[in-house]
Amino acid sequence: MTDAAAPPVVAVRGLTKSFDGRKVVDDVALTVAEGEIAGFLGPNGSGKTTCIRMICGLLTPDAGEGEVLGLDVRRDQRQIRRQVGYMTQRFSFYEDLTIEENLVFVAGLYGLPRQAVADTLADLGLTSRKRQLAASLSGGWKQRLALAACIMHKPRLLLLDEPTAGVDPKARRQFWDEIHARAAEGMTVLVSTHYMDEAERCHRINYIAYGRLVASGTTQEVIDNAGLVTLLVEAERPGVLATHLRKAPGVEQVEPFGTALHVTGTDRAALMAALAAENVEGRPAETSLEDVFIRLMDQSKDNMR
Ligand SMILES: Nc1ncnc2c1ncn2[C@@H]1O[C@H](COP(=O)(O)OP(=O)(O)OP(=O)(O)O)[C@@H](O)[C@H]1O
C-alpha cells in the first residue's frame, strides 16, 4: 500500500438505496485507502453491486454522502465515472471483434491515442493474441480483456464486480497477481467476490448482508472480532456424529473436512460438553473466514425477522 497519510480514495457514509420500495442497501459506510485492495463480500443479493454502482457514479443514492477520488458521490457522478475503471459481472465486450478491436473501440470512448491500446496489450500479455476474436477466448482470457479495457485509461480506482466467477484457479491466480501489481503502483481496488481465498488476498474486507455492512477489517480482525471457537474432531462416522452435534446446545456450525469435523460456536465449555456427550474429543483449530461469514449471515437473517 502507498502513503497511509493520503486521504482515502473512497469515503462514503449512510449510503442507502431502495428498488420498488425495498431497501437493498441500508446505511452503508465504507472507507478505502489509496493503494488498498478492499474486498466486498456477502450473500447473493445483499447489495454489493448496488453499492459499487453508487460509488462509481452510475446510481444515485437515495441517502448518504461522501467522496470518491475527492469528488462528491452525489454531485460529481459524471466526473467520477470518467476517473474509475468498472468491470461488471458479465463479460460485456463485442464477441465478434478481436481483442485489439475491442480495445480500440474503448480507447475511442475515452479519447485515448492508439498507443494506449498497444501499451495495454503489452502490459497485460495480450499482444500475441490481439487478433483473436473475443468469442473464441477462454474465461480467463476474456476476463483479462475486460480488465485491459477498464484500466487502459489508467484509473486511480478500480471497481471489480466478481471478476473471476467461473474462471479456473490458475487464471484466477494470474488475475490476482495483476491486481496486486497495480495496487503496488498506487491503484486502489474494490472487488466483490464469493471466494474465500480471494477474500484472504485483500488488504481489508467488508462483509455486507441484507444491505447492511456487518463487518470490516483485515481478515484476522474480522475472524478475531467474531469471537468464535472451533474444535476439530476426528470421527469414524463423521456424518452420524455431525447430525448429533448439530442438535447440541452451543453448537452453531458443524462442517465436514474429509474424515474430520470442524465444530464451531461461541462457548468453548458448551462445545466441549457437546463432544463429551458423544464420547469424542476435540482439539483446538483455527476458525476460518468462511465459518465467520456463515455466522454473520445467520445473525443478519435473525435480525431481519
Ligand atoms: N435496477 C434494479 N431494479 C430493481 N431491483 C434491483 C435492481 N438492481 C438490483 N436490484 C435488487 O437489489 C438487490 C441487491 O442486488 P445486488 O445486485 O446489489 O446484490 P449483490 O450483493 O451484488 O448480489 P450478487 O452476489 O448475487 O451479485 C437484489 O434483490 C436485486 O434483485
TrEMBL record:
Species lineage: Bacteria, Pseudomonadati, Pseudomonadota, Alphaproteobacteria, Hyphomicrobiales
Tree of life domain: Bacteria
Domain ABC transporter: 10-235
Species of provenance: Shinella zoogloeoides
SUPFAM superfamilies assigned: P-loop containing nucleoside triphosphate hydrolases
InterPro entries: AAA+_ATPase, ABC_transporter-like_ATP-bd, ABC_transporter-like_CS, P-loop_NTPase
Name of this chain's protein: ATP-binding cassette domain-containing protein
PROSITE patterns: ABC_TRANSPORTER_1, ABC_TRANSPORTER_2
GO molecular function: ATP binding; ATP hydrolysis activity
PANTHER family: ABC TRANSPORTER G FAMILY MEMBER 20 ISOFORM X1 (PTHR43038:SF3), ATP-BINDING CASSETTE, SUB-FAMILY H, MEMBER 1 (PTHR43038)
Pfam families referenced in this protein's UniProt entry, alphabetically: ABC_tran
